[in-house]
Amino acid sequence: MDSSSNRVTTLEQFVIQNEQNFPYATGQFSKIIRDIVLASRLINREVNKAGLVDILGLTGDTNIQGEKVMKLDIFANEHMIDALFKGRMVCAVGSEENDDFIIRPDSEGKYIVLMDPLDGSSNIDVNVSIGTIFSIYRRNDAGGELTKAELLQSGAKQLAAGYVLYGSSTMLVYTTGNGVNGFTLDPSIGEFLLSHRDMRFPASCDTYSVNEGHYRNFFEGTKAYLRHIKSVSEVPYKSRYIGSLVADFHRNLLKGGIFMYPGTHQNPSGKLRLTFEANPMAFIAEQAGGYASNGRERILDIQPDGLHERTPLFIGNKEEVLLLENFIRKYGKYGRPVPTLESGNLS
Ligand code: P6P
Fewer CB within 10 Å, N side or C side of the chain? Predict the structure, then answer.
C-alpha cells in the first residue's frame, strides 16, 4: 500500500470505523448510508447533465406544496425510495414529493427515512447548486402496524441526518450525533472521500442569508434584528442568499453565518418544512456547534403534527440565532414600531 492511500478514507470505511457510534446492531446504519449514496450518485449523474438532455422543464404536475414539479424531482424521489426499500433496512419513507408516508408493512426494517429528495429544484435550469436532505429515525422494536407517533417523531429523536450537495463538487455531509463530517465525491473512482473532518461553525458570524424581497411582510422582531445587523452592529455583515437551502447552509457552516426563512404576516409558519428540511439541518447545525430555532423555541424540540408541516427557520452560529430570538422576544410578532437610528432607541 503506498503512503498516499493512508490519507484517503472512503465514506464506507469511515462509517465502518465509527459504527459503534450508531446505536443498535452494528452495520445497519452503514447499509442505509450505502442505499442513500447509491441514489445520490444516480441523481448526481442526472443533475450534471440536466442541461444536455430533455430532463429539464416541467412535468406539468404539482406536488402537495402546489409547486411545479421538475422532472429531476421525480427522478430523485423515485431512486431514493427504490434504493431505500431495496436495502431492506427501511420500513417507511416520508418524502416532500409524496402526500403521505410510503409504508412497507411486510418490511422487517426498523428505520424510517424522511427526505427532501431534491431541494431547491427550481434552481436546476439556472445551474445553481441543489441538494438531497435526509433524516433517519427508528421505529419501536415491538413491530406491528406503524403508528403516527413512530412516523412523526420530534427532531431530537433523529439517529442520523445529512445532505448531499450537488454543486461545483458533490458532497455528502452527515451526523449520527457524534459530530459532523463531510465527504467529496471523486468521480474518477465513484467514491465519496473524507474531505471535511469534524465540521464546526467558525466562532464568528459575519454573513446573513435571507430573501429580503419578503422584508415588508416580516414580523417586527425579524425586522428589528435585520436593522440591527445592517445599521447598528459594529461588524459589517455580508448578505449571501442563493435560494437553495442546502447551498446556503453549507456555505454558512464553512464560513460562519445565519440562514433565515422567517414567518410572514401572510404565512406565519414560513415556507420550509419541519420534517424534511428544518429537522435534519438543525441536527447537523447543533452537532457542528450551531443552533436552530423557529424564533421562539429549539427546532429539534418541536413535535410535528403533520408530515408537511411548515416552520420558520433560523439556523447557524448559535450566538447569532440566540440574538435573533432576543429581538423576536422583545418585539414579538406585532411588537412596537421598528426602532430606527433616528429615534435613537435601537438596542
Ligand atoms: P424563496 C427552494 O425552493 C427552497 O425550498 C429552499 O431550498 C430555499 O432556501 C427556499 O425554498 C427559497 O425560497 O422564497 O427565497 O425563493
Answer: N
In this predicted model, which residue has the larger pLDDT, 124 or 43?
A: 43
Query: Is 97 close to ligand 1, i.e. is its CB under 6 Å away?
Result: no
155 and 260 co-located in one domain = no
Task: Say how far apart CA 96 and CA 326 lie, in whole Å.
Answer: 32
**Closest residue CA from atom 5 of ligand 1:** 120
CA of 257 to the centre of ligand 1 (A): 17
Query: Is the distance from the beta carbon of residue 96 to the nearest atom of ligand 1 less than 6 Å?
Result: no
User: Could you tell me the distance, in angstroms and rounded to a whole number, from the CA of residue 120 to the centre of ligand 1?
Assistant: 6
Check whether residue 58 and residue 156 sit in a common domain: yes
Q: How far apart are CA 295 and CA 74, in angstroms?
A: 33
Minimum-distance ligand 1 atom for the alpha carbon of 122 = 3
Q: What is the CATH number of the domain that holds 55?
A: 3.30.540.10
Calculate helix-pair angle for 245-255, 279-287, nearest 10 degrees: 10
173 and 251, same domain (yes or no): no
Phi, psi of 343 (to 5 degrees): -70, -15
173 and 211 co-located in one domain: no
Say if residue 302's pLDDT is above 90: yes
User: Does some domain include residue 259?
Assistant: yes
Looking at residue 89, its pLDDT comes to 94
Q: Which among 144, 176, 196 is the end of a domain?
A: 196
Is position 201 within any domain? no
For residue 279, what are the domain limits? 207-331
- Per-residue cell: 303: 413535535
Percent of the chain at pLDDT above 90? Answer: 74
Give the ligand 1 atom nearest the CA of 244. Answer: 7
The CA–CA distances, whole Å, from 13 to 9, 106, 165, 182, 211 equal 6, 31, 21, 13, 40
pTM for the predicted model, two decimal places:
0.91
Residue of the CA atom closest to atom 16 of ligand 1? 243
The answer, yes or no, to whether any atom of ligand 1 lies below 6 A from the CB of 217, is: no
Do 139 and 181 belong together in one domain? yes
**Which amino acid residue places its CA nearest to atom 3 of ligand 1?**
120
Ligand 1 site-directed mutation target among 261, 269, 277, most atoms within 8 Å of CB:
261
Count other C-beta atoms under 10 Å from residue 145's C-beta. Answer: 7
Q: Is the pLDDT of residue 56 over 60?
A: no
